[in-house]
Automatic annotation (TrEMBL):
GO terms for biological process: flavonoid biosynthetic process. It comes from Hibiscus trionum. It catalyses: a 3'-unsubstituted flavone + reduced [NADPH--hemoprotein reductase] + O2 = a 3'-hydroxyflavone + oxidized [NADPH--hemoprotein reductase] + H2O + H(+). It comes from the Eukaryota. The keyword Heme applies. It is found in: Endoplasmic reticulum membrane. This is Flavonoid 3'-monooxygenase. It is a single-pass type III membrane protein. GO terms for molecular function: flavonoid 3'-monooxygenase activity; heme binding; iron ion binding. Pathway: Secondary metabolite biosynthesis; flavonoid biosynthesis. Belongs to the cytochrome P450 family. Keywords: Flavonoid biosynthesis, Heme, Iron, Membrane, Metal-binding, Monooxygenase, NADP, Oxidoreductase, Transmembrane, Transmembrane helix.
Length: 509
């Protein structure tokens, strides 16, 4: 065993020096960046919070940087103008994903939508998701589901007499709303909206996935060392995949059994029934398989739930910390909605100041602070610098949203910046304005953006409108912990513990 380890290390050293010699022979003008260490490159420079570490480096080396992580060229975009070059001007060249352990060991070996190589299969999966789950018609058809699950959450909060972990209950709500759309039933709980041990276990699985996916795995950047799994990441991913696969296989088999017992001519009423029907139908990329269906479900239940619930948790934390802003939002809600009913989807477009609050939340707390990596299909030139073929692209969404060249007082929570007369009154979070791109941009923009936006808006508006909020244990708002936790998604380091107090007329609940 020791001889194998020694051989692998010697091989890595040899390949490193070959790499350096070849690089010197073919000198090109790469973007600036910190000097890499031997073999491991700039991995030590990433720090415990990569999105923050890269933002700090960008202040020194500029918004377009080159790093070498192991043997992999990495380019970083840390300003709106540079991000636009990659995701708009050169979008087609950066539409594939680089190899990574998460896609291999968790996401069914690249058979999902998020990590699938750009091509016919990816287009098929994207089309299925866009048409059947995230289209305007689909969102309208299932708006009653979102409103019903939010009402379940509201009733649970009304009946709660002790402090609550808001993020925990939000996660149950978002998972059940998505579950009813996808499978026609709730995933967790008995419909009363309270905490559920299975839901807690599921959330822990999602958080673990995001934490593991956020690790810069040495094996991804030094292939000769992949088999050693020096950080233990791959082993943890394999075990986590088994847990997810049991969960998803159970859902799929149960649905197939129920479909077999019913009338096969009945119109499909949920996404999973539609996906199962596509196993026997040829499309642009061929038939769907059970594995691809489970991989799609994995995407939806991970990327489509925890991101929304954590964004709402950040929004509520900011509003509790800023009572003047909270009061203005609540006044607008009372004016538009009144105090005899809960907020509905149709109200959202009439809430101008509230929409600015949501945009400001997405700016300061983007659910994915460091974009999922993309890969250069061919070499190209950006801002006069050479970008090598095969280079990995990272867009630091978090750094862009806090760029002092784009935003006045960027660390302050100021919704007014998105109102008429503010600095960015027309800024859109849907990938068109690169100063704030919480869902990414270009071909690989988040497929569930429209659903995520509606869920975040409706949940946050309802919580602000329906309840007064006190922090647990007498904590003062100005003392609230706003630190971030490590991971692919932007979780709070400390959960938001609160006491909700109903403020509407009894008939509203």
């Amino acid at each position: 065993m020791d001889s194998f380890v020694l051989y692998s290390l010697l091989s890595a050293v040899f390949l490193f020096f070959v790499f350096v010699i070849l690089r010197k022979r073919h000198r090109v003008r790469l973007p600036p960046g910190p000097k890499p260490w031997p073999i491991i490159g700039n991995l030590p420079h990433m720090g415990p919070m990569p999105h923050q570490g890269l933002a700090a480096m960008a202040k020194v080396y500029g918004p377009l940087m080159h790093l070498r992580l192991g043997f992999v060229d990495v380019v970083v975009a840390a300003s709106a103008s540079v991000a636009a070059q990659f995701l708009k001007v050169h979008d087609s060249n950066f539409s594939s994903r680089p190899p990574n352990a998460g896609a291999k060991y968790v996401a069914y070996n690249y058979q999902d939508l998020v990590f699938a190589p750009y091509g016919p299969r990816w287009r098929l999966l994207r089309k299925i998701s866009s048409v059947h789950l995230f289209s305007g018609k689909a969102l309208d058809d299932f708006k009653h589901v979102r409103q019903e699950e939010i009402r379940v959450l509201v009733r649970a909060l009304v009946n709660e007499k002790t402090k609550v972990n808001l993020g925990q209950l939000l996660n149950v709500c978002t998972v059940n709303a998505l579950g009813r759309v996808m499978m026609g039933k709730r995933v967790f709980g008995d419909g009363r909206g309270g905490a559920d041990p299975q839901a807690d276990e599921f959330k822990s699985m999602v958080v673990e996935l995001m934490q593991l996916a956020g690790v810069f795995n040495i094996g991804d950047f030094i292939p000769a060392l992949e088999w050693l799994d020096l950080q233990g990441v791959q082993g943890k991913m394999k075990k986590l995949h088994q847990r997810f696969d049991r969960f998803l296989s159970g859902i799929l088999e149960e649905h197939k059994i129920k479909a077999g017992e019913g009338d096969r001519k009945v119109k499909h009423t949920d996404l999973l029934s539609t996906l199962i029907s596509l196993e026997d139908a040829d499309g642009e990329g061929g038939k769907l398989t059970d594995t691809e269906i489970k991989a799609l479900l994995l995407n939806m239940f991970t990327a489509g739930t925890d991101t929304s619930s954590s964004t709402v948790e950040w929004a509520m934390a900011e509003l509790i910390r800023h009572p003047t802003i909270m009061a203005r939002v609540r006044s607008e809600l009372d004016s538009v909605v009144g105090q005899d009913r809960l907020v509905a989807d149709l109200d959202l477009s009439n809430l101008t100041y509230f929409q600015a609050v949501i945009k400001e939340t997405f700016r300061l707390h983007p659910s994915t602070p460091l974009s999922l990596p993309r890969m250069a299909s061919d070499s190209c030139e950006i801002n006069g610098y050479h970008i090598p073929k095969g280079a990995t692209l990272l867009v630091d969404v978090w750094a862009i949203a806090r760029d002092p060249n784009e935003w006045n007082e960027p660390l302050e929570f100021r919704p007014e910046r998105f109102l008429p007369g503010g600095e960015k009154p027309n800024a859109d979070v849907r990938g068109n304005d690169f100063e704030v791109i919480p869902f990414g941009a270009g071909r690989r923009i988040c497929a569930g953006m429209s659903l995520g936006l509606r869920m975040v808006q409706l949940l946050t508006a309802t919580l602000v409108h329906a309840f007064d909020w006190d922090l647990a244990d007498g904590l003062l708002p100005e003392k609230l912990n706003m630190e971030e936790a490590f991971g692919l998604t932007l979780q709070r380091a400390a959960p938001l513990m609160v006491h909700p107090k109903p403020r509407l007329s009894q008939q509203a609940y």
